[in-house]
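Service request form, structural biology core

Requester: graduate student, group of Dr. S.
Request type: structure prediction, single chain
Budget code: on file
Notes: please return the result as structure tokens.

Sequence provided:
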Amino acid sequence: MYYNREAAVNYAEKWALYRNPMYYDFSLIGGDCTNFISQCLYSGNIPMNRNKYGWFYQSLESRSPSWSGVEEFWSFAISNKTEFGVKIKEILLSELEIGDIIQLGNDSGYYHTLLVTKLISPTPNNIFICAHDYDSLNRKLSSYNYQKIRCGKIIA
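Core staff response, request fulfilled:
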């Protein structure tokens, strides 16, 4: 599998301020951020893992928790050893590339998933993201208020 970072970023920039009608909008039932990031990664050539506990979306009623849940996404992606579904490796902020993901959190846990779309240098003021909920198109990471951060390298 080849992860097409540019395709994921292009999708993110196209749909950051809108909703793709092919997918349910989770904004009113807990948030749409991870659903949006999953769409971006799928557009970047990451194949769905249709296992009951995998990473997939067919409809609101037929999807995995990891497709749309912040913690569930991370838990699946960090431990996925199959050839299907998203896989990540936790990395430092300084190791990010476009198409990688960031999750923001506080003392209660992680609550927001973002996609890196532009990178000038590996500092929060020079990393730009796209996200849903507070719909963001190439927003500076430094503009967010968060207590903790984790970064995930998308691996093929």
